[in-house]
Amino acid sequence: MSSVVDRLTLSTELDIADFDYELPDDLIAQVPLPTREASRLLVLNRRSGAIQHSSFTDLGNWLAAGDLLVANNSRVIPARLRGFKRATGGAVEILLLRRGADGWSALGRPAKRLKVGDQLEFPAPDPGVRSAVATVEENLGAGELRLRFHNSDDMRLGAYGEPPLPPYIKRKLADSERYQTVYGSAPGSAAAPTAGLHFTDELINELRQRGLGWAEVTLHVGLDTFRPVSAAGILNHRVHREWCEVPMATAEAIAACRARGGRVVAVGTTSARTLETLGMDWRDENPLGFTGFTETFIVPGHHWKLVDALITNFHLPRSTLLLLVSALAGRESVLRAYAEAASRGYRFYSFGDAMLIR
Hints:
6 helices; globular; alpha/beta; six-stranded antiparallel barrel; nine-stranded mixed beta sheet; Thrombin, subunit H
């Protein structure tokens, strides 16, 4: 699927410096809360800019019967590998991004020292388990590599891989399941779709009992999650492809929601990105799902096709995710909401509190 950047956006000057903000380090959540749904919830009216404060357990009070929640069911794989170059013994760290027909797309460190043909070995924590071995097939620059594993070693990542926590999280996670959503069922992501981390089975059931619908899409989170926008002009930023899928049942649920006048509520920016990709060719009278890659890049000026509301976390400055949120609620309103959240001690980023844009 091609980019969703609208013509309105193409004629607009957008500077990434306008999407920057300061955040004290002590507001970056290092560990999840003891219970998932205990997070705070900032509610932002996308039209008036009004801000209200609530808790995630009260999410149902801000939604209505007939609304449809659409969540990303991608599951995080143990994609961070620590090992060494067989030839020199030099330490290497690899972050697997996506498996393709010709091997894995990955980020490597130190990438400049990794040459085509280098063999990398990744020991397992259990000394009784053999190490995994991969060969560098291509160095694409900017830290990106293509790797090929020996002996199908990539089929047993759980033996030697680690959860790929973001670099701003410095503490070891006691329970790796807390970096998974309770409904995650499709392995393939290099990072969690973090807006979904707040949900429990009990909360989902409660929302269903209130008359809300629940549907799922899949988007395997990849490279752009780890890359800030480095180009001053936003439209010069290269967006990498991510694989996504919308099942036919989800497309039909969206059409039914729209027919009854309900709102389509994306659970997270990855769900929003998938839905807006679907929206490129959407027809209410003929809902169709799709499977494939998306290069969707949503920035202010975007004309929203399917998403009416968004549940999301608080995102890094100068990130594509902050641009997407600003496209829905407006840059000024979003940055004002972020400033108020910081002043009230909200927890930010992956293990942080939540925001509902409605």
